[in-house]
Structure formats: C-alpha cells, structure tokens
Amino acid sequence: MIDLINLWFKRAVPEPTDKNRAVQYGVHLEEINEMFVAENGEDSRELLEWSKEYKTGAYPPIIKDKKEFLDSLCDQIVTAVGVAYMNGFDIVGALQEVNRSNWSKFENGEPLFDENGKIKKGPNYSPPDLSKFV
Fold it and tell me: Relative to the CA of 129, which of 50, 67, 88, 101 has its CA 20 to 30 Å away?
C-alpha cells in the first residue's frame, strides 16, 4: 500500500522543490492536528500555526539529521498502525480507501494544486468512506 501512496506523490510532484517539501510538512502537521480534534474536540494552536507557516512555503524545513528524520517518519507509520490496531480499526482497508479517494482528486490524470502548491480536490473528488473500517 505504501508503494501506491508513493506513486500518487510521484505522479503529482515528480521533482519536489523546497516549497513542495515545506507544504507537505505543513500538511502532515495539519493531519496530526486533526487527530487531536478527533480525540478531544480541540485544535492544537501550535500545530496549526506551524502547519500554516510551512504550507505557505515561508518556512522551508531544514533537516539537520536526515537519518534521524527518516527514522522518525518510519516510527510515525509504525505507531499509527499500532494506534489503529489498538482501537480495532482496519488500517489496511482504510488506507486503500483513502488512496482511492486521493486518486479521485486528479482531473484527466493530472493533479490540481491550490495557491500554496497543496494538492486539492478536483471536480471528480469522492471522499473516503471509512465507516466500514472502524
């Protein structure tokens, strides 16, 4: 499944720039904030502020230790799978559904981007139906 998600990004942004990296980092922080909201109904103001800064490309991430950074990303994937498992979620099925939904953002096989360079929902977008995976 990770290969299919990676393919989606490669198709959307074949040659990532510093701005692309900053936007993706901001989107990642935005998703972590969504987890906080789903858990307790409140935003994390700090995460939202950092997310906004990164998504505008105003604050490109500078990775001082690439090995540790990659280790952190891998650990986030592993712990996300663990959290899903501990809550009785079908993470494999859910990822397949989210991946299907992400591909529906493309129009005529091409990604659409917002003003900051974030991939946005096109006219054929269909949201993921995760109800059967909880």
Answer: 50
